[in-house]
């Protein structure tokens, strides 16, 4: 009976007999445009139907709950995701179909962002940090230091975790800073040196702002780092060629993966360089490729023949037809670029698994180390290697001098003591 009453009220509202002010005009047209946008993503039938049905569902729920579209936020979306559904929407075989909260939340957010992008409902104001010192510091990092969004996120996370242990900067002392640092470094021992860098940067900013005492800059203990204590991991050229040969080209995803592997192996690119590469970074006539790297200053590298052939094969037969500037895209709809460098490392790991290659690190950086090591062993100088790898400092390239065994043999001195027993 309740369901029939709800449908009747919905009918009266749709016909205009009952006035409803939901804060949005011509909702059916926007819903139809959203369906067209979903179809343009070339999704599989199941996910596409989920987005469409959940859009209709959230429209019905908002009307029943008497919520305005202009007021929708993450809290309202979460309430929709967990509501006990009795909404007057079409149900398969006339039965109530229970959907997961994750799918409800994901699809509702997708529809809301679509409406916000069209200007139908107001966008959410950016969240302002509650800590004014933190907000000013992050703004300074962005505007004056040119820090990337990922760097700012990492700095904010680490500083935020320390703040409950410290309190207001005006009340800091050396003992409290050391206790907080030691406690935090025990939680993440591998990131202790980075934590030192972050905290010292933040303290310097606060000192300049007059928020804490200058002497506190020396309260953060140093972490001893032995940059040249270990050899860089590398593999020999024969293993590199074996990895490349393990890349089949029968499916579109394999064509894409081979092009990525060749870029890593022949040019020593970082995973982030491959992720951020765009279509216009390749100059086919000039035979070079532009790489921005960490410095955001574009460098030009020669485009080897086999790398160019692999990229061309990917563009001609394997790359999805999508309006996207990034060179490499995911093979499943929606066709978007990689979200992080970890996906490049996953491609390397899958290539090793396909080729049955064992005992080799699965990270993408192994190609960069191997290229530098093999170049040195074939007679290239450190300056040339640093140019190819786009190192900003010669000290970064100097670590590879330890793997040049022929050169080390020439300068090795005999042991001054007696022969060992």
UniProtKB/TrEMBL annotation:
What residues form the membrane-spanning segments?
Answer: none
What sequence ranges are listed for the domain Tyr recombinase? 230-413
Q: Which Pfam families match?
A: Phage_integrase
Q: Which controlled-vocabulary keywords does the entry list?
A: DNA integration, DNA recombination, DNA-binding
Please give the Gene Ontology molecular function terms for this protein: DNA binding
* Domain Core-binding (CB), first and last residues per copy: 128-207
Q: Which InterPro entries match?
A: CB, DNA_brk_join_enz, Integrase-like_cat_sf, Integrase_catalytic, Tyrosine_recombinase_XerCD
Keyword DNA-binding listed? The answer is yes
Per the database entry, which stretches of residues form a coiled coil? none
Q: Which GO terms describe its biological process?
A: DNA integration; DNA recombination
Q: Which Gene3D superfamilies match?
A: Intergrase catalytic core (1.10.443.10)
In terms of PANTHER family, this protein maps to: PHAGE INTEGRASE-RELATED, TYROSINE RECOMBINASE XERD
Q: Mind telling me what this protein is named?
A: Integrase
Species of origin reads Sphingopyxis granuli
């Amino acid at each position: 009976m309740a369901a029939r009453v709800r449908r009747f009220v919905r009918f009266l509202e749709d016909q205009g007999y009952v006035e409803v002010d939901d804060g949005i005009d011509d909702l059916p047209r926007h819903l139809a445009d959203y369906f067209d946008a979903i179809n343009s993503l070339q999704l599989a039938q199941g996910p596409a139907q989920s987005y469409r049905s959940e859009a209709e569902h959230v429209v019905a729920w908002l009307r029943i709950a008497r919520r305005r579209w202009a007021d929708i936020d993450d809290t309202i979306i979460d309430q929709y995701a967990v509501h006990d559904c009795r909404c007057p929407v079409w149900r398969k075989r006339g039965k109530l179909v229970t959907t997961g909260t994750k799918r409800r939340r994901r699809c509702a957010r997708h529809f809301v962002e679509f409406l916000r992008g069209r200007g139908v409902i107001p966008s959410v104001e950016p969240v302002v940090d509650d800590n004014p010192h933190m907000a000013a510091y992050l703004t300074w990092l962005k505007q004056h230091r040119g820090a990337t969004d990922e760097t700012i996120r990492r700095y904010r996370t680490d500083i935020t975790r320390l703040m409950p242990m410290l309190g207001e900067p005006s009340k800091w002392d050396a003992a409290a800073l050391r206790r907080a640092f030691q406690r935090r470094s025990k939680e993440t021992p591998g990131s202790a040196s980075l934590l030192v860098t972050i905290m010292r940067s933040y303290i310097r900013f606060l000192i300049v702002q007059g928020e804490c005492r200058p002497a506190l800059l020396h309260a953060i203990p140093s972490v001893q780092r032995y940059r040249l204590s270990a050899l860089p991991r590398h593999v020999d050229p024969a293993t590199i060629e074996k990895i490349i040969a393990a890349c089949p080209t029968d499916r579109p995803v394999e064509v894409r993966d081979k092009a990525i592997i060749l870029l890593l192996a022949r040019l020593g690119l970082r995973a982030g360089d491959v992720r951020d590469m765009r279509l216009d970074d390749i100059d086919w006539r000039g035979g070079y490729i532009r790489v921005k790297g960490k410095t955001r200053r574009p460098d030009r590298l020669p485009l080897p023949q086999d790398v160019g052939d692999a990229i061309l094969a990917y563009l001609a037969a394997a790359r999805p037809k999508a309006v996207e500037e990034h060179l490499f895209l995911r093979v499943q709809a929606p066709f978007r670029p990689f979200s992080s460098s970890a996906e490049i490392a996953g491609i390397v790991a899958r290539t090793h698994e396909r080729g049955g290659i064992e005992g080799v690190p699965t990270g993408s950086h192994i190609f960069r180390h191997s290229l530098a090591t093999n170049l040195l062993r074939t007679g290239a100088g450190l300056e040339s290697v640093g140019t190819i790898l786009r190192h900003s400092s010669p000290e970064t390239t100097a670590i590879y001098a330890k793997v040049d065994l022929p050169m080390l043999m020439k300068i090795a001195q005999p042991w001054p003591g007696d022969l060992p027993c």
